[in-house]
Design goal:
Layout lengths: L6 H24 L4 H29 L6 H24 L4 H39 L2
Helix pairs in contact: 1-2, 1-4, 2-3, 2-4
Length: 138
Amino acid sequence: MKQKPSMAFIAASWVAVLAGILGFVIGLWNATMQLNEKGYYFTVLMYGLFSAVSVQKCVRDKIEGIPVTDIYYGLSWVSMLLTILLLTVGLWNATLAPSEKGFYAFAFLLSVFGAITVQKNTRDTQAAKAADVSRETI
């Protein structure tokens, strides 16, 4: 029997993803870096969120026996690792204070964690609803 995630876990997941994204974006908005640098970091964040959701979906699909091509599964993992590498290289070479670098790194990680848990909760909720519907029709 599939169990729906608790409302507390769903809320905590949404708070994590929104706090991470908002913190990162507000930090970029207030940063004194050039617009092209802000665009770089924003693109890395968006690419990271997409990659994290793709990895979570691929892993979950494989667990549930839903076919996933090896190329998409591999590209999802490569994309996730590439976003981490791009952020690391960007922050390593940035002329930011160490505290700012840490802020962006942790806001990114919080956003990615939140995106993964929101995706997981969405899948768990859908699976629980489908299980409830199939039980009602029996």
